[in-house]
């Protein structure tokens, strides 16, 4: 009997990747054949993102690719964008089915047949009905796994659609997370990345008092997960990154000294307009605390430029702060108007050309920051977890503090952690090691 072929493409964050893998596994258990997105498939499923307009454009591009691969392919959009703006997606030619954030985990139940539709069917519940936590972790990558520990967000940042896409903050319990982590370890995966929308808010369930917190979670993982080599924390809010968490990670045998701490703006005036829950002073304190006890730590950050009302002096405040801080890299985002957010209706919109100009300036700074961080480690010994892909005769990997490395291909290095010497940075910004 011929198996139906299903292809997936994931847009957006690490959490989306974890959830996609969970959904793929459900298809495999039902007898589907999983294939690459740029090949022939009976069903094409796109896990969407609602953060920026670029994600919307990417969805349209992926629909065109699917149609090119199979003009009769059944195309499904799932996830955040499908939850926030299903009617907008229904206007995209070629999409047959639109599934919201809750329904995506039961997508197979909505696939009655694969015949193309004139108008897309929409299944998307209200956020009040989205009141459960669905465990997820990725396992298609044999080197590292993204483990979902938390979902949703109670913050009301004025530019963000995520609370409307994923609902209130909620978490798995520590016992379950330990169980899933052990399952990951059994598959030979060496690194776990803790993911969520707002992981520092771990323990909260629908505005109820926390039964546990993020510090207790990572302490439990340190105690019970003796066989894992590395655990990496994804993005964590500066106001939730406590001294106790920083101190614990500095002494940990398995949690690595890599932090991603969103700044968004170096101007308190703009932070207030964004409705962020910290000040520039708090951010500075967190960075200084980390480097006082972990001088080789890697710290990345997110920055939004061109937010409504961001004057030149506000931007220069941000640039000055980032120039002075020991930040290792920046993720720079030009402000993107999203419907159903407070910022969408704000006055003093910044022209696109100024947003682009400011983005370019900060990306140039990021490149410089990353290079300076890398060269500080030249001639030092570091442990590198090597991946399973061969490219141009090289094998690639990451140090514990997130330095991208490469060395001559050796199959015996795949999915192994090796102590190497960092030699120099190549023209692509990758550290050569041996």
Structural class comes to: alpha/beta
What count of domains describes the coordinates?
3
Task: Strand order, main sheet: write it out.
Answer: 2-1-3-4-5-6
Principal-axis shape equals globular
- Assembly level: single chain
Rounded Rg: 22 Å
**CATH superfamily annotation of the largest domain:** tm_1862 like domain
> Whole-Å distance between the termini?
50 Å
Write the CATH fold name of the largest domain.
pyruvate-formate lyase- activating enzyme
User: Sheet with the most strands?
Assistant: 6 strands, parallel
- Spans of at least 5 consecutive residues with low confidence: none
CATH class membership of the largest domain: Alpha Beta
Helix content: 25-40%
CATH architecture of the largest domain, please? Alpha-Beta Horseshoe
Overall average pLDDT: 94
Task: Report on the architecture of this protein.
With 434 residues, the chain is α/β, with parallel strands linked by helices. The chain has 3 domains: 5-125, 3-Layer(aba) Sandwich (Rossmann fold); 144-375, pyruvate-formate lyase- activating enzyme, CATH 3.80.30.20; 381-433. It is built from 12 helices and 19 strands. It has a 6-stranded parallel beta sheet, with helices on both faces. Strands 15-16-17-19-18 form a 5-stranded mixed barrel. A 3-stranded parallel beta sheet has the order 7-10-11. Strand 3 (43-48), helix 2 (53-69) and strand 4 (74-79) form a beta-alpha-beta unit. Helix 8 packs parallel to helix 10 and helix 11 packs parallel to helix 12. The N and C termini lie far apart (50 Å). The model has no long low-confidence stretch (mean pLDDT 94).
């Amino acid at each position: 009997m011929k198996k139906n072929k299903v292809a997936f493409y994931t847009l957006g964050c690490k959490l989306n990747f974890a959830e996609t893998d969970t959904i793929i596994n459900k298809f495999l258990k039902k007898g589907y054949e999983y294939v690459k997105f740029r090949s022939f498939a009976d069903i094409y499923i796109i896990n969407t993102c609602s953060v920026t307009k670029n994600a919307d454009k990417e969805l349209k591009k992926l629909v065109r690719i699917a149609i090119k691969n199979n003009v009769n392919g059944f195309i499904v959009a799932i996830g955040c964008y499908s939850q926030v703006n299903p009617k907008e997606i229904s206007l995209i030619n070629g999409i047959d089915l639109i599934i919201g954030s809750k329904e995506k985990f039961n997508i197979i139940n909505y696939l009655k047949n694969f015949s193309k539709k004139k108008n897309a069917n929409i299944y998307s519940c209200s956020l009040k009905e989205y009141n459960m936590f669905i465990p997820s972790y990725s396992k298609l990558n044999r080197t590292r796994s993204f483990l979902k520990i938390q979902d949703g967000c109670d913050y009301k940042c004025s530019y963000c659609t995520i609370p409307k896409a994923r609902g209130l903050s909620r978490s798995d319990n520590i016992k379950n997370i330990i169980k899933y982590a052990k399952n990951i370890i059994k598959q030979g995966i060496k690194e776990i990345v803790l993911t969520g929308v707002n992981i520092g808010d771990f323990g909260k369930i629908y505005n109820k008092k926390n039964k546990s917190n993020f510090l207790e979670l990572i302490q439990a993982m340190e105690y019970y997960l003796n066989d894992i080599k590395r655990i990496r924390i994804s993005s964590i809010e500066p106001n939730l990154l406590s001294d106790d968490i920083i101190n614990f990670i500095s002494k940990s045998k398995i949690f690595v000294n890599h932090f991603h701490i969103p700044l968004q703006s170096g101007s308190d005036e703009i932070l207030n307009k964004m409705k962020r829950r910290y000040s520039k002073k708090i951010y500075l304190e967190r960075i200084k605390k980390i480097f006082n006890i972990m001088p080789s730590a890697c710290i990345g950050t997110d920055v939004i430029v061109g937010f409504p009302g961001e004057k030149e002096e506000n931007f220069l405040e941000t640039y000055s702060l980032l120039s002075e801080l020991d930040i290792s890299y920046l993720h720079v985002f030009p402000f993107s108007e999203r419907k159903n957010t407070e910022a969408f209706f704000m006055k003093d919109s910044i022209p696109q050309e100024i947003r682009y100009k400011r983005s370019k300036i900060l990306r140039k700074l990021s490149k410089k920051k990353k290079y300076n961080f890398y060269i500080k480690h030249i001639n030092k010994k570091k442990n590198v977890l090597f991946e399973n892909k061969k490219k141009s005769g090289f094998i690639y990997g990451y140090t514990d503090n997130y330095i991208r490395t490469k060395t001559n291909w050796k199959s015996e290095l795949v999915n192994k952690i090796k102590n190497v010497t960092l030699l120099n940075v190549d023209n692509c910004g990758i550290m050569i090691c041996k």
